[in-house]
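We treat protein structure as text, and this decision shapes the records that our systems exchange. Because each token names a local backbone shape, the row as a whole describes the fold. For reference, a complete record is included directly beneath this paragraph.
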Amino acid sequence: MLPVVLTTFYAFYIDRIGVFDILVEKYSMTSIMISHNMKDPIDYSDIIVMLDKGRVVLDKANKDIIEKELIEIYRKNLEFGTKSA
């Protein structure tokens, strides 16, 4: 089966959960989600990997992280990432 790419623009207009369920369960596919919405990884993933300028700042199983912790890590890296060197 060829790779399937869903952009956020397309996903905005369709039932994302339904699409992920079909791809993951019916076709035994692994999906990679890229999102700036902190709720998406909590809702749809088993493992959350957060990158900042190509550097891994978080790599945890979804069950081991709470949304508040995810947002704190995001904000911390966003704040430090915007400062001039």
About this structure: The helical segments are 8-13, 16-26, 39-44, 67-82.
